[in-house]
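As noted in the main text, all predictions were made from sequence alone. Below is one such record, for Probable membrane transporter protein.
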Amino acid sequence: MTNTLFPIFLKTETARFLIVGGGNVGLEKTETLLRQNPNVSIKLIAIEISLKVKEVLAQNPHIVFHERPFEENDLKETDFVITATNDKVLNTQIKQKANQLKILVNSADQPDLCDFYLGSIVKKGHLKIAISTNGKSPVLARRLREHLEDTIPENINESIENLNAFREKHKGDFQSKLASLNQVTSVLVDQTNSTKKEQNYKKLVFQIAGIFLAVFFGYGLSTIISVTDLNHLASNIPQAFFAMIAVGFFAQIVDGAVGLGYGVTCATSMMLFGIKLPAISGSIHTAEMFSSGISGFSHYKFGNVNKKLLFWLAIPGAIGAVSGALLLIYLGDKYETITYGVLATYTMLIGIRLIVIAFREKIDKKQVKHTGVLGFSGGFFDAFGGGGWGPIVTSTLLAKGRKSKYVIGTVSLAEFFVTLAASITFFASLGVSHWYIVVGLILGGSLAAPLAAKLAGKLPQKTAILLVAFLVIVFSVRMLLKIV
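Prediction:
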């Protein structure tokens, strides 16, 4: 069978559809039409109409329906017929009668009875893509639709509107308009420019991270480790250094398997070792800055970042991080026991939040309000508690029905600026008194990274998140009991 299909896009404002069948297939066809035009004219006929179809009919009172067998009179005032029954004889009879009246017919899963196909449809604003496999594999068409929905950026409609405005304002003839549009859109296929931009962003994050690392260790070596004492220091490495290697290794394994929990896992573990509170958060953010920078800009490279959302998370998040870091430095010196209690309670609440995330069902997309407040809160508590940016910000955005691809990519890149702001604040206030903690975390995380990458996706996400939540809650409770 050759592919002789000619794809067209039909305006549905005046089209009249008859659907015969009230089961799951009838439901699918009805919902498909409604997604393209909520006011489309539909008449549904079925001997028995399922409860789910009746719910759709109740939500769309303009749909005419009758719970009875098909009658030839049903073809009157109809432009297209969709048969959605499992009775092939009836479907054949309907097609014959409809074709006699010059009415086109689609029969679900029966290509030989189809005059047209209802392909899988990708819809993003003004952009609409229909996919057909010539009736051979609806499953493949659906998979291609899902792939395109994830690949095409959410802001594609803005590009279409801008190009339309450009076209409307252009005063030239068709050829000059076409030449101008080609010039404007050439960047979309200019792989060289795209690659250069990606390399520039990657170069930027490495430069920032490299400068901070050089200053960090340079200051540490000049104020703490003299050249004459270098050999002595090597033989007297603090025992906490090895503990931090273990903490960094464990936290990276958790983060690699689940996608969040690095900061909270480090914070709760380090509190049990009795490390000073400002050093806990400062060390975590300094160590995490490098990984979050590389991760965030990698997401940017693959188009997983929503720039508008990034702006409203990164700037308020950085301000919140500085505020949280300064508050922790002040409280950590004067009210150590109280601050331990506050942080242990906070990490326990984060653990409970993770349990809620694990059992959360898929919900519809909702508007995200006060994004700047969310960014500030995430940055503040992340710096004050040594972690929690992911559980607070990522979980909130996902709970609003946002696509995980863009949420994780945007939040990861924003986290780089949040951790950078917190690290600079801790570094400026405390110096490098906690260098061995930072190095231990980085070394442990580096050792765990390859193993964590292999574990990613192996453990069911719900199970993994529940395990992290359990560990965080147990550590937090132990810390609370320790200070009581």
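The chain is about 65% helix and 5% strand. The chain has a mean pLDDT of 75. These features were considered when defining construct boundaries for the mutagenesis experiments described in Section 2.9.
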